[in-house]
Amino acid sequence: MSLEAVGSLVAAIISALSLAGVTVSLLLQAKQARISQSEALRTRHFELFRLAYEHSDLGRVWSEQDPPFPTEWRKHTYTNQIMMYFRMSHAMGESTDWEIREHAARLFSTIVGREFWARAGPLYLTTSRSRAHRKFCQLVQEEFERAMLASRGRSGSVHTVRVAPDDGYRG
C-alpha cells in the first residue's frame, strides 16, 4: 500500500469520526431541546393549576366532570401533578420501574390516590404516545389493580413494603 493510499485512508477515518461526533452532538442537542420544551410545558401546566388553586371559581373551567368541590378538585389536580412528576422522572430514566411501582403503591394506599386513578387512569392509558409513557402507565395500572384488590374488605392503608431489587448500585 502506498503512502498516498495510507494518507487517504487515515483522512477518511478522521472524516468519518468527525461526522459521527457531529451526529452525536446534534442528537444530544435535540434531546436536550425536547427536555427543555417538556420542562417549559410542565411549568406552564403548574402555573395554570396554581391560578385555579388561588381562584376556586377557575376550577370549573378545566372540566365539568372534575370533582365538584374546590377541596376535592385541588386534591385531584395535586395528585395529577404528582403523577406527572413520576411519569417524567421515569421517562428521563431517573426512576426505575421498581421505584415507580413503589411510588404508585404508596399513592394508591390512600383513597385520594385510588379515586384519582379510577377517574384519570383511563385517560393516561389511552393518551400515552411514547413507549416510555406506555410502560409507566402499565406499571401504575398494575399497582392500582393490586391496591384495589387489597382494599376490598379492608379499610386503611393497603401499602406493603417491598425490598428493592439489587441493581448493583452502591450509592
Name some characteristics of this structure.
171 residues, mainly alpha, disordered C terminus
Blueprint (SSEs and pairs):
Layout: H1 3-54, H2 59-62, H3 70-91, H4 97-107, H5 111-127, H6 131-151
Helix pairs in contact: 1-3, 3-4, 3-5, 3-6, 4-6, 5-6
What's the total count of β strands?
0
Structural class: mainly alpha
Q: Helical element count?
A: 6
What low-confidence regions span 5 or more consecutive residues with pLDDT below 50?
156-164, 167-171
Radius of gyration: 23 Å
First CA to last CA: what distance? 53 Å
Main sheet overview = none
**Helix and strand succession?**
HHHHHH
What value does the average pLDDT take? 83
The helix fraction, in percent, is over 70%
Coarse shape: elongated
Strand portion: under 5%
Q: Could you please describe the fold and organization of this structure?
A:
By secondary structure, the protein is mostly helical. Helix content is 74%, strand content 0%. The protein has a domain at 55-151. The protein is elongated, with a radius of gyration of 23 Å. The relative contact order is 0.08. Mean pLDDT is 83; it is low at 156-164 and 167-171.
Outline:
This protein has 171 residues and is mainly alpha-helical. It is built from six helices and no strands. 74% of the residues lie in helices and 0% in strands.
